[in-house]
């Protein structure tokens, strides 16, 4: 039987285990751009704009970048970076600017914080599928009322990403994001599927059907290639919607290399 995430030793009783810690500047730029572009109203409406960045890694750079980007939307946003590894917390403290940017030791229990928005990227890949669902439940139970989680995975330089947006009601949306010039076919993103989906990319599962259909749309959109990979991606998104998939947003976001769908389209 798979072992459940343990409580890390220490007074903080942080729930989880340390990640590898790999991070790079701008690695999470695509999810940050999506949050600032699609969650603007959500952030502006928040009574207490506390945002948590869970498991930021060996350096706090991506937390600092997120705080800077969110501040352009909500100047009084407060960002809290959480890590289980105390050395990583200490690295964060060196660049902290409380109360608007701070760092603390914590895991899935969120160290007592009640954020309206939680970003958890490249955190759950080391867990089993069952453990990842348990982590979802734990984090959701710690959010402020009406809060959201953005949980996903990306490659080391942030050119291939996928994520799930969740509320207390469960998963809401699924997003694929990439640099279109950096893929051969959209299904290249399969290696970066979140834990809840990565083992479901097999025939008979919805996420496999989505990636297969998106590859077909990409092939059909080949005549757009002379206008650049972004134009081909936009046409692929349009075709995917035309074929009955619940694709959200419009060309403005598709041109950024994004496709967001209702979660029901990929739910296991």
Automatic annotation (TrEMBL):
Name by which UniProt lists this protein: Class I SAM-dependent methyltransferase
Gene Ontology BP term (one): methylation
Keyword Methyltransferase among record annotations: yes
Record keywords, A-Z: Methyltransferase, Transferase
InterPro entries: SAM-dependent_MTases_sf
GO MF entry, a single one: methyltransferase activity
Provenance organism: Lentzea kristufekii
